[in-house]
Amino acid sequence: MKKRTFFTFFIISIVLIFSSCNSFNGAGETGEEFYNYIKNNQYDKVIGLLTDVALCASPQQDWIAGLEELKTERGKIKSFSKTSLNSEVKNGKTITVLTYNVTYSEKIYTEKITFYKDGKDYKINYYGFAN
Prior knowledge:
Elements (H helix, E strand, L loop, with lengths): L1 H38 L3 H4 L5 H6 L2 H15 L4 E12 L2 E11 L4 E11 L2 E9 L2
Antiparallel strand pairs: 1-2, 2-3, 3-4
């Protein structure tokens, strides 16, 4: 009985780890695109990475204006790296939160992006600062 319980627990753990890794990779690719677009001042391309909910909360022109203002305040992005992952399924929707350390011209900031899985793609639903 103990072997069976352990085996069941082991299989469930493997499935959860694989699911988290898949979320990390998929959302991570979208996050890379997001930061590379910002780094290269391609703010209009960021819009294609956003969920409809994100665009309803802040229209396209507000996102672009906000990203331009961010560059004015913090400077150009020098580098970025993922630092943590949290993934869960709510109401049948995969939600992944990635935290990044982003190095701007003068300082490193911690930023958080929430991704919703939309079919095979991960779209950005929220972008904000952790500090």
